[in-house]
Design brief:
Elements (H helix, E strand, L loop, with lengths): L2 E6 L12 H11 L3 E6 L7 H4 L9 E4 L2 E4 L1 H11 L7 H30 L7 H23 L11 H10 L2 H4 L6 H12 L1 H18 L1
Parallel strand pairs: 1-2
Antiparallel strand pairs: 1-3, 3-4
Length: 214
């Protein structure tokens, strides 16, 4: 049975591969798993059929082998566990999973907080005072990550699901704007984006975005 990923009909990221389904598409490409997409308009996200897959009305979801999953991190972990995208040894596997959680629980929330402050709260009276505090927290996270990555290409030995989640977080605009201050992180993201599976997943998402524009 072909796996099916729920995605936006026309991703609001402007075809830049920034929507959260990108990590899932990338993981499926790395794993060599045949898959198709279920394009959804914003109105579809609130319909009962989609809510049955994703209680919060978001994307992505994955339907595969009779199992339906939501949350990009959980989906990528599921794919990684079943298709060799985690280290073979127990200790290495545990380290990679720790980094996957770090991507979604430690780094990405600060990145998203900065995006919200800039895009949705930019005209609020508290933003000028709040934004430097958010950026300071983000810079500290990036500095810590750069220190951990020093001298190695990937987070947990060879390339793994941890790198899919971490590179995906670092590709968000609020982080991308700062990566020039950390050559180690910029090079890390570039290595991820150069992988054949990423290139193929990005091309597919971009092509579908262009087709949706008509």
């Amino acid at each position: 049975m072909t796996a099916i990923v729920s995605v936006f009909v026309a991703s609001p990221d402007g075809g830049r591969g920034l929507a959260r389904d990108m990590a899932v598409r990338w993981a499926l490409r790395e794993a060599g798993v045949a898959h198709d997409v279920r394009p959804l308009a914003f109105a579809d996200l609130k319909m009962p059929a989609h809510r049955a897959r994703q209680p919060f009305g978001q994307i992505p979801t994955l339907d595969s082998d009779g199992l339906t999953l939501f949350e990009s991190g959980a989906i990528v972990l599921h794919i990684a566990e079943r298709h060799g995208l985690l280290p073979a040894d127990a200790a290495g596997r545990a380290q990679a999973i720790s980094w996957m959680f770090a991507a979604v629980a430690t780094l990405e929330p600060v990145i998203v907080e900065r995006e919200v402050a800039l895009l949705l709260e930019g005209d609020q009276p508290w933003t000028p005072a709040r934004l430097p505090l958010i950026e300071a927290r983000l810079r500290q996270r990036l500095d810590d990550l750069a220190t951990a990555l020093a001298g190695r290409d990937w987070l947990a030995g060879g390339f793994s699901g941890a790198d899919i989640m971490m590179v995906s977080a670092l590709r968000r605009p609020a982080a991308q704007r700062l990566l020039g201050d950390w050559p180690t992180l910029a090079a890390y993201v570039a290595r991820g984006e150069a992988r054949q599976a990423f290139v193929a997943a990005f091309a597919d998402q971009h092509a579908r975005w262009q087709a949706a524009r008509g």
